[in-house]
Amino acid sequence: MNWNKTIEGVPQSDVKVLACYHGFYKLLVWNSTYECWDDEEGDDYFCDKEQVSYWMPLPEMPKV
Fold first, then answer.
1. For residue 58, what are the contacts with CB-CB under 8 A and spacing of at least 6?
2. Which residues have C-beta within 8 Å of that of residue 64, sequence separation ≥ 6?
3. CB-CB neighbours of 28 under 10 Å
4. Alpha helix positions (H), 1-64
5. Which tens digits make up the pLDDT trace of 8-51?
6. Distance CA 1, CA 31 (A)
7. At the N or C end, where does the chain have fewer CB atoms within 10 A?
8. Mean pLDDT calculated for residue range 49-56
């Protein structure tokens, strides 16, 4: 999996991703309705689009 630059595009709405936020890793959800990042539960505003520099999809869960 590769990191995606936010300036080149954002993930699908309501999908949890790993985001690089001011040099820290954070699970966030893109909210296309308000064009902002929501917290990892997807229900509260976390930050503006430009505050996340990179994002990547989460890997698949291991089969148990």
1. 16, 17, 18, 27
2. none
3. 25
4. none
5. 999 999 999 999 999 999 999 999 999 999 999 988 999 999 99
6. 22
7. C
8. 97
Taking the C-alpha atoms of residue 12 and residue 22, their distance in angstroms, rounded to an integer, is: 22
Cβ burial, residue 60 (10 Å; 0-12/13-18/19+):
exposed
Residue entry with tokens 């993930």: 11
User: Residue 60 is encoded by which pair of tokens?
Assistant: 């698949």
pLDDT given for residue 64 in this prediction: 84
Structure tokens given for 62: 């291991």
Which residues share a beta bridge with 5? 54
Give the total residue count for the chain.
64
Beta bridge partners of 18: 27, 56
pLDDT value of position 1? 74
Pick from 33, 30, 62: which is nearest to 49 by CA? Answer: 30
